[in-house]
User: Fold this.
Amino acid sequence: MKDFLTFIVSCILGACPAGDAPNDKNAVPGELSSIQTRAGENGEEFIIQNYAPKSLSGDYLASQFAQRHHDWGNALKFMDPLLEATPDDTQLINKAMVLAMGSGETETAIALAHKLLGIEGEQENSLALLFVALEHFKNKDYQTALSFIEAMPEGSLSDFILPLLESWAQAALGKHDTQNLGGNTIHIHHAILIAAYLGETDNIEGLLQQSLGASGLSLQDLERIADSYAYIGKTEIALELYTKLFEEWPENRPLAHKIDSLKNGEAISYIEGVDSPEEGVASALYDTARLLFQEQSDESARVFAHMALYLNPDLPDAQLLLGYITARNNQLEEAIHYYQAVQPDDEKYEESRRMAADLLESAQHIDDAISELDDLVKNYGDLEALIQIGDIHRRSENFDKAVSTYNKAAQKLGSTIPREYWQLYYVRGMSYERLGEWDKAEADLTTALEYQPENPLILNYLGYAWADQGVHLQKSLELIRKAAALRPTDGYIIDSLGWVLYRMGQYPEAVPHLEKAVELLPYDPVINDHLGDAYWQVGRKLEARFQWVRAQNHSEDEDFVKDVQAKLDDGLSENHDMVKEAKTQAHDGKI
Assistant:
């Protein structure tokens, strides 16, 4: 699998060389200075505003710059004058071909592929052959598609993708040939799809047993295997797998619904068969893109995702994946576009709109995010969207609105919130705690812990809240020790461990934990303040003042800064009324 990834990445990126710019005596030094970046909440976002290069070198450098900043649309645009000036430069054609496919300009990419294959020495260009093969798949000319696949040089697209293309091309011609699809779970999944497409399903269970024996199975792989067992009617095996999965993946509410459906004796089928070979190839290309995305190979992933959409425009998973890719690379507007491209009649529509709302919130477009979710609640009765509205209010510290929204969601769930919605207890409990309604908060948080006794976030939050109030300190210590064992490198949890020891008067024991927390999160003002308090109590007063100054320097909370200044002025006496810090989003996690 690693060999596949190495080759695909080198293949895609090798088609986009970062060599010297074309020789142009009119090149203008520094002419890229008008290309801008802007800082967003999630990092730097690349933008070009009315940039017009003054030379071919400028176009080339602008294209390189845009691609490095994951703006493939502009990277392709700047290639146009270069291709016009040097129409037979195979490197430039190759690069433009890949940029066009990765930008969703598939017809342009295929036209460039034809052009490239017509140039002497390029007849075995594997990507060009692949793009043209896809064109023939789309036109249902399966025999010609197979001929282009067979023309690819051995090893050109690795032993991973070629068997998938070959087997689907053979299936298109009515031949069941999946003997080369046994090396990994994706191959086996497509062997199952091909068998189902051809109506030859006798060996599917054997293929599934082979899948379960594969190494390195992800949670998604196991769910897909369970879905396949449900598809062939082996519901007992499917239920066993779903149940084990849910123990590892408790936030996956659709998984909980599958479990409940099977327990209630409902017939379910979560494997969608394919109606045509081109849909099968599209699914294979999407699976390749997903694998590349998981391995952080985003440029290659977006090319394969757009190939999948070319063959099957009604493939929402590919739209969602492109949204994930562009969001991860801080192209938020492009990501929102991909999410919003999913159509209302598609089963992934509500999920895609929730993802768009999440990005709108990240871009500080809070009203737009809530409006997007309100539409889902009003027109689709989307409970997930309602909870997400509450989350936005909570993260914006509008805790009254958060509680009101969470209560509406709870009412829709009936008299008892079911286990798959355990997070509702947690987020509502946090909101009650921030409003000072501790009895309600404690009830929700302890119920959430009953549902999820091994969840480090709940363990930490409840334990920290008790410690901060000076109650149930021994129980608080037990909860936070357990959380710290589960997440030993989480600075907030390690801070909580030190803080509960501090509140118990065990100052020497608290210091090393708080020092470790500061090492993990050196710029968190609350953690620096905690360490300063602990240093003071063990007589390390100079170091205490240093930590308090750091706490002040990294806080924008005027009340917090004022309270720390009082400690800097007068020290920390035994009767000092220690500040009860407001918990940040980072303490409770972004839920």
